[in-house]
Amino acid sequence: MTLADIWPVRRLRVTTSALELAVPGEDELAELAIRAAAGIYDPQSRFLARSPVAGWESGPSPQAERSFLRYYWASLADWRPSRWNLVMAVKVDGACVGVQEIGAQDFGITGTVSTGSWIARRFQGRGHGKEMRAAILHLAFAGLGADRADSAAWSTNAPSLGVSWSLGYRSNGTTIRAFDGARQEQINLVLDRERWESHRDDIAIHGLGDEVLELMDVKRAASR
Ligand SMILES: CC(C)(COP(=O)(O)OP(=O)(O)OC[C@H]1O[C@@H](n2cnc3c(N)ncnc32)[C@H](O)[C@@H]1OP(=O)(O)O)[C@@H](O)C(=O)NCCC(=O)NCCS
């Protein structure tokens, strides 16, 4: 029995003509930890309110790298069918450029997923953010049969909002949060299955077997 036989989620991959989402192995985890620690925000930017992005932390090395690893391993350790979060490496031409996450609580009842993501700074602004979200939405709607996908971003985070608007999300109100000692407005976003219009025939899901669906509390018949 291999590790993937015991934990079949490891085999899950989503491929598009431009990139691949994959469950990271040890080498990929190290690459992502280094990228996360190197920083994902332009330090000069006065306009982008830094987000508390999952698994990313600035600070001295190697604490920042370890913080990413802890986050990753905690998401695995906490996995239950009733509450899971899948952290996938985003690979472009063999390099790990960032992270795309998808999670759900009681998916069999809610039919709802939420997503989060980051890309290493030098790979931002090249369309990868939109492409990886399109890939994870394909997994959610076509693979898991989701009804709805939620997301959120600070009102000042133009690239993150840009990804959501361009994929058809609509605003689902705002939440005011305290962050970094300041008042921050968060825009909540939702994409319903009806508004998810994927005409992409180049996106493929690999390794989504019955055991994985069980681990994700997917009870409905998906249209994959
Ligand atoms: C948010 C993030 C994942 C987006 O990925 P990206 O590769 O930089 O974005 P893309 O190049 O795919 O652009 C996506 C859309 O946003 C638009 N956009 C990108 N940067 C923008 C900016 N600075 N201002 C306005 N629009 C912008 C693009 O034009 C594109 O829209 P279009 O398809 O309608 O042209 C990436 O910038 C990132 O990792 N940022 C830091 C971490 C973060 O903020 N994560 C999200 C937390 S909520």
Automatic annotation (TrEMBL):
Q: Which Pfam families match?
A: Acetyltransf_3
Q: Which UniProt keywords apply?
A: Transferase
Q: What is this protein called?
A: Protein N-acetyltransferase, RimJ/RimL family
What SUPFAM superfamilies does the record point to?
Acyl-CoA N-acyltransferases (Nat)
Instruction: Using the record's annotation, list all stretches that form the N-acetyltransferase domain.
Output: 59-169
What Gene Ontology molecular function terms does this protein carry?
Answer: acyltransferase activity, transferring groups other than amino-acyl groups
Which Gene3D superfamilies does the record associate with it?
A: 3.40.630.30
